[in-house]
Every structure is written in C-alpha cells, then in structure tokens.
C-alpha cells in the first residue's frame, strides 16, 4: 500500500523523487525516505517519521545531488512507523524500497544473523537488502543476476526497487504481487508503484506483469521473467493529464470526489446505456451467449466494494432473478468453497490491486467457475488483467482514501449488468426500460441531492461530541447503512455500526439512550411501513434520530429527538446510489468539524495491496 518512486536520469533527481512521493502520499503516509547516489557513487539516505513534507524539510538542509535514486512512503506492516523502520533499507551498498510483505522474514532473519548480519530495523524489508548482499558476496554477478538468484528464497508479496550504489546507473525492479509501472523517458527512466506519480514526467508506460524483473538504466529497459528469460511488454501511451490530481475549488479530494459523482456516472454510462438497452459489446461479440449461461453470481470484494456488492445482490435476485452471493475476499479465499453450477465470479475493486480480492480471483481459476468478471476503476490493474472479462468504472482517479465516486459508479455498472442479465433471463421489456430511464436520470438526481449540502453540514455539528452512531436501513438500503457507517468510521473515527433495521430488537436497542445518534435511511418503498416501527422503537427509548427520507413519513422535523433530512425525489431502483450521497456528505462534515485528516485518515491507505 505504500508508494515507490525511483529514477535514473541525466539531471538531479531529488525534486522528481520528492514530487513523486507527494503524489503517492495518499497510498500510505506513516513515514518516508529516499536514497540518492551521485555520479561518483556517493550516497545520501534521508528518512523521517510522518508526512512527505517532513522529508522535504530535511532535504532542504542538505544539498542533495544525484542522478539515480529511490524513494518511498511507508504504510507499516512489520515494525512501528518510525524513522529507523522507514525505507530505503540498506545492506552496505544494496538499497531497497519495498511494497508488500515478506512472509518468511523471520526464518531469513535468523539465517542472516547467523551469517553475521546486523539488523537496524524491525521491518521485513531489511531482510531483502541483507539477503541480496549475502548472495552478492557469495556468488558475485550483476545486480540483476543477484536479484534473480535471490527471489526464489523470498516468500510473500513484493513490489520493490533495488539499487547498488557501487554501480550508480542501474535500477532493478521486481513485481511479485504488488504493482509497479515503468515510465519511459528520453535519456531517463522511472519506476513507480502507481502511474499517478509519473504523470508529470512521461506519457509512455510499461506495466510490469506478475513475476517480471526489470533492469532499468538511462537509455535501456530490459524485462525478464522469474527464470531470467527476456520478455516483451507493451509500451502504453497515456493521455491522462497530470492536473487530475488538483483539488480545484474544493478543500479536500473527498469533497471534490463527492461532487464529481454526477459526471463520473455519466462517463460510466456513455456508450453502454442507450434508451432501450444495455450495450456491453466491449465484452466481446459472443457475450450474450456467455451471459445466458450464467445461473449464479459470486461477488468477492473488500471494504466499500463489498458494500456495493451487497446492494447489487438485492438487484440481481429481485430484478434479474439470478441468485447472488457476496463475500468478503479475505474470507472467501480461506474457506472450503462449494461452487454453484454456472457461477460467474465478479471481483469488485477500486484499484484492481486489492490483495485479498486478487487472491480470491486467482483461487477462483482453480475452481469450477464459468468465468470471471472484474469491475474496477483502473484499466491496467492486476485484477483487470487477470480476469476473463472486465468492465471499467469511469470515475477518473480517486485520491481520497475514503471511496465515494467509485462506490456509486460500481453500483451503476452493477445495475447495468443486472439489466443485461435480466434481459437474457426473461426480464419484462417495460421493467428494463424503466430501470434504464432511472439510471439515465441518476446524474441529475444526484445533482439535486447535492443541493442539500448546507442542511447536512448543519446537522453534522450534532456529532461533534459523539463517540458512537448506529445506521439502520432495510432491503437494498441496509448495505447503504453499512456504507454510511463505514464512511463515518473511516474519516471521523466515530465508532459506527450498521444494522438491518429489523435486527434492532435483537441486541442493539440496548445501546439506545439520548446520546446515541441513529441514522435511518428511509426511502419511499414497500419496506417503509416496517421501518417506521423501527423508528418508533428508537424514539420511545429516547435515541437521537436522523432520518434521511424523500417523502412525508408522518413525523415533523425537530419533533421528539428527531431530525428529518428531507431529500428530493428519486426512482426506487436507483435510490441506494442516491441515498449514499448525503451519508458521504455527513461523514465529510463530521470529520471536518472534528478536524480530522479527511483525505488521509490515520492507519488507512488507499489501495490495500497487502493481505
Ligand atoms: N512490509 C514493509 C514494512 O513494513 C513494507 C510496507 C509497505 O508496503 O509500506 O516496512
């Protein structure tokens, strides 16, 4: 989940590395470091706890000059966030930055200590540096040869870049389980864990594939497989502008991304949603024949993506009449699975690199699934590349750690898929057309709900002194309650839980008192009557009710302990997407008044590439 950037160039690369780290900071931010070597082999390593800006301050005091180097923002997995645990890690002349986990680090550490190696950090990464050093001492050879010989000894996941300060012209990059991309320039080349870091520098990229090892110099890039055989990888031109990382008129990326949802959904619909049908010809000419065979959907996902999968389960079953199961990827992969007949596995992930979802996808290939479909926001991601089929959510880059626009666009894609599968499974034409109409209206509906911004901002003040909150909903709005609770937890650090409203009396009612906010998602649907009983259950016990609704539910605003957040009209089928927006705004404003770091909440990172 950390960020890596490395460069080999003609000019001083200090600024390039620091700017790259700033662009990667959203991925992990507990500490940062860099190592730079000048033409004569003089190395400087600087590391510090906390944000990249601390590292920048440190570099300002030194006159750093160098043409080759590597840098890292860490998201600690082994060893506390501290300066000594920050990367790069070194073993005399070997420098390593690493993203991921070395599973057999303890065993390797013992072995290395027995050879006389001394460890200065608690990280798993340091074993890589010493292991490479040992191999170099024992067997000699170029950095690439040493890396090739060492990799079979390391178990786990590692995107890493290695440098030997005695030969300051070569970087070696290894991708096993964690993504790396090479940015190809003229007389200079770069490597990063995320294309975003390189956007201002180059527009040609090579995405390393699983097991690739690249040897990179100023003028040459050679890529090998794990056996040392040369492999060819495509050079991809990108037209993504590097301005995408600007916050524009907004104060935070999360706020910007909440407001981008109408356009993100429009983009996701373009070319796929005509007035009468869903066009998924991007999935191939025979896609209709394939989808017709699908009799069960198995969704695997984590976090927010899991919540969107949960919403879609209601849709797949009630609209397309196809049974659907949704499972957290980290559970799915370690369970004895009984695969249903003609089951399609759907891997849902924003980044397409989520370690557990990727592992679940890989596992599914050994099982009897009819095929796999990725729904992701990043085209060149591992999950997209390794799935049989993929549908991209066209949200654009999402930088706020708390997902917003990728949730609503995932749901948009899933709902289109529901119509597509439904149409092959006997769904009435009229129903198909009504859902299509509703999806097409969605960007407009969201624009309307965004006008409630000020109202929600005012309500957020009530949460300033709260430590707990409950979110309740029914049917396809129960997962929306889950998503609302997740957002509040993530960025405001208020303990929040979601319950299917009918479950209140089976335990959570015991928590209700006049300090407990209960957020109710109460759209106008056939479950509203039942939901009102649950509202009553909370009201009679003195709970603080915040009811998000778009019709008259028979209570008045500020009556009893009750605040009603009156929302505009929305079609029933798309209501779950619509109701997510005010909940995102609520978390945003609560986090704002609590002075939280909204875009980079503590202990979290954007793309979870470790298990
Ligand atoms: N496992 C390594 C560490 O704890 C790398 C973590 C990361 O991906 O940032 O230092």
Structural notes for this entry:
The chain has an eight-stranded antiparallel β-sheet with strand order 3-2-4-1-10-9-11-14, covered by helices on one side. It has a six-stranded antiparallel β-sheet with strand order 5-6-7-8-12-13. Helices cover 34% and strands 22% of the residues. The protein starts with a strand and ends in an 18-residue tail after the last helix. The protein has three domains: 3-237, Glutamine Phosphoribosylpyrophosphate, subunit 1, domain 1; 247-427, Rossmann fold, CATH 3.40.50; 449-599, Rossmann fold, CATH 3.40.50. The structure holds glutamic acid. Residues 1-2, 28, 74-79, 85, 98-101, 123-125 line the site of glutamic acid.
């Amino acid at each position: 989940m950390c960020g890596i950037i490395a460069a080999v160039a003609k000019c001083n690369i200090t600024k390039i590395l620091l700017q790259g780290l700033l662009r990667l900071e959203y991925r992990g931010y507990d500490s940062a470091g860099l190592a730079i070597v000048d033409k004569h082999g003089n190395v400087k390593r600087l590391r510090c706890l906390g944000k990249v800006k601390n590292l920048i301050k440190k570099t300002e005091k030194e006159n750093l000059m160098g043409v080759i180097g590597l840098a890292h923002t860490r998201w600690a997995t082994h060893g506390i966030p501290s300066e000594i645990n920050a990367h790069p890690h070194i073993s005399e002349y070997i420098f390593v930055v690493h993203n991921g986990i070395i599973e057999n680090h303890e065993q390797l550490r013992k072995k290395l200590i027995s050879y006389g190696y001394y460890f200065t950090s608690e990280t798993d990464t340091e074993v890589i540096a010493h292991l490479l050093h040992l191999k170099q001492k024992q067997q000699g050879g170029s950095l690439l040869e040493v890396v090739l010989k060492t990799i079979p000894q390391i178990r786990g996941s590692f995107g890493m870049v290695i440098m030997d300060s005695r030969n300051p012209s070569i970087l070696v990059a290894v991708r096993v389980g964690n993504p790396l991309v090479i940015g190809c320039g003229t007389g200079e080349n770069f490597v990063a864990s995320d294309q975003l870091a390189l956007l201002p520098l180059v527009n040609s990229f090579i995405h390393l594939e699983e097991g690739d090892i690249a040897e990179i110099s100023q003028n040459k890039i050679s890529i090998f497989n794990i056996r040392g055989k040369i492999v060819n990888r495509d050079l991809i031109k990108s037209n993504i502008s590097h301005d995408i990382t600007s916050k524009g008129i907004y104060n935070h990326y999360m706020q910007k991304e909440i407001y981008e949802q109408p356009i993100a959904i429009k983009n996701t619909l373009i070319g796929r949603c005509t007035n009468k049908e869903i066009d998924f010809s991007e999935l191939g000419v025979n896609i209709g024949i394939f989808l017709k065979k699908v009799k069960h959907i198995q969704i695997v996902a984590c976090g927010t993506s899991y919540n969107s999968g949960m919403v879609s389960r209601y849709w797949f079953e009630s609209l397309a009449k196809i049974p659907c199961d949704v499972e957290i990827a980290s559970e799915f992969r370690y369970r004895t699975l009984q695969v249903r007949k003609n089951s399609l596995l759907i891997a849902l992930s924003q980044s397409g690199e989520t370690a557990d979802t990727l592992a679940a996808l890989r596992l599914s290939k050994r099982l009897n699934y009819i095929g796999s479909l990725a729904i992701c926001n990043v085209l060149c991601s591992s999950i997209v590349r390794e799935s049989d089929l993929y549908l991209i959510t066209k949200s654009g880059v999402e930088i706020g750690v708390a997902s917003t626009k990728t949730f609503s666009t995932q749901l948009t894609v899933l709902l289109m898929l529901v119509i597509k599968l439904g149409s092959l499974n006997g769904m009435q034409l009229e129903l198909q057309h009504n859902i299509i109409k509703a999806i097409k209206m969605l960007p407009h509906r969201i624009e309307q709900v965004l006008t409630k911004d000020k109202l929600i901002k005012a309500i957020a003040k009530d949460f300033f002194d709260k430590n707990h909150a409950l979110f309740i909903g029914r049917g396809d709005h129960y997962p929306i309650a889950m998503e609302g609770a997740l957002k509040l937890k993530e960025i405001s650090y208020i303990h929040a839980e979601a319950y299917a409203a009918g479950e209140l009396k089976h335990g959570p009612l015991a928590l209700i008192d006049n300090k407990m906010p209960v957020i109710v998602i109460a759209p106008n649907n056939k479950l509203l009557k039942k939901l009102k009983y649950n509202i009553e259950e909370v009201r009679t016990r003195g709970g603080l009710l915040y009811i998000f609704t778009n019709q008259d539910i028979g209570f008045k605003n500020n009556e009893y302990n009750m605040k009603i957040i009156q929302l505009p009209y929305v079609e029933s089928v798309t209501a779950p997407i619509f109701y997510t927006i005010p909940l995102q705004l609520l978390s945003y404003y609560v986090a704002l008044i609590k002075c939280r770091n909204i875009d980079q909440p503590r202990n979290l990172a954007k793309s979870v590439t470790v298990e």
